[in-house]
Amino acid sequence: MELFYKEFGQGQPLVLLHGLYGSSDNLQGIGKYFSRKYHVFLPDLRNHGQSPHEPGHDYNLMAEDIYEFVLDHGLENIILLGHSMGGKAAMAFERKYASYLQKLIVVDISPRSYIGDEAHINTASLHQSIIQALEEANVEKADSRLDVQNFLVQRIKDERVAQFLIKNLKRNDKGHYFWVLNLPSLAINIKNIFDGIDYGEQNLPFLPHLHYLSGAAILLILTKQTKP
Questions:
Q1: pTM
Q2: Quick one: angle between helices 145-156 and 118-136, nearest 10?
Q3: Is 75 within 8 Å of 92 (Cβ atoms)?
Q4: pLDDT tens per residue, range 125-150
Q5: How far apart are CA 92 and CA 34, in angstroms?
Q6: pLDDT tens figures, 40-78
Q7: Is the pLDDT of residue 89 over 90?
Q8: Whether residues 9 and 102 fall in one domain
Q9: Is residue 221 predicted with pLDDT exceeding 60?
Q10: Residue-number span of the structural domain to which 165 is assigned
Q11: 34 neighbors 9 (Cβ within 8 angstroms)
């Protein structure tokens, strides 16, 4: 799959992977910041942003998409940073293609599967509600972005989430709104998105490339490296 991407700067390659419902747009600010030191690539993952829509959506497929992206651009000695779903996609890539990486940075996600526990049940229900709300927003007939956002706020009951989701709303050549997300695929594959990456917990402390960060620390490792 040929992923859409944005590109900034020169130097060691730094590839940033967004999370669920995200796109390269969400990481453009941090990408431009680090382009002072690195050659930054911001791909849209499958079924997100301007990348192709496909029925399948799991971490093995995303890892292969990233591998194809790496080969197409001749990348090596990569710093790969993934947030949330993008973090699991990055870990799936590392499992198969570790030789391409100099460093793996994972933000706000662990390799574990969330399927079956109580937290997963609640979260899966939330995401199913989100996808259903997006599908039922009838955006093709919407008069404005604000109308769609207000509908999402009423359905999801979270204004910040609605503001984040509305970034996926675009206009076509005829002036009609549409979602760039492949909602049918995400709905069908939501279980895959909550699945785990089988590292084996006993191996995690010994992974040579892995740095696990919380969202507040997303800049920590890279900012240290950008100092003279």
A1: 0.87
A2: 150
A3: no
A4: 888 899 999 999 999 999 999 999 99
A5: 24
A6: 999 999 999 999 999 999 999 999 999 999 999 999 999
A7: yes
A8: yes
A9: no
A10: 118-190
A11: yes
Task: In whole angstroms, give the CA distance from residue 65 to residue 56.
Answer: 12
Assess whether 11 and 91 both reside in one domain: yes
Do residue 201 and residue 181 come from a single domain?
no
22 with 100, same domain: the answer is yes
Same domain for 69 and 102? yes
Q: Which two tokens stand for residue 45?
A: 């993952």
The answer to whether 152 and 142 have CB atoms below 8 angstroms apart is: no
Q: Is residue 202 within a helix (H) or strand (E), and if so which, with residue range?
A: none
Q: How far apart, in whole angstroms, are the C-alpha atoms of residue 208 and residue 191? A: 29
* Tokens found for residue 29: 């600010």
Length of the chain: 228
Q: Each residue of 144-192: pLDDT tens digit?
A: 999 999 999 999 989 999 999 999 999 999 999 999 999 999 999 998 9
Measuring CA to CA, which residue among 85, 83, 157 is closest to residue 114? 85
Identity of the amino acid at 102: Q
Q: Domain total for the chain? A: 2
Structure tokens belonging to residue 153: 């706020």
Domain match, 34 and 81 both: yes
Q: Name the nearest CA neighbour of 104 among 75, 83, 82, 80.
A: 80
Place of tokens 């030789």: 99
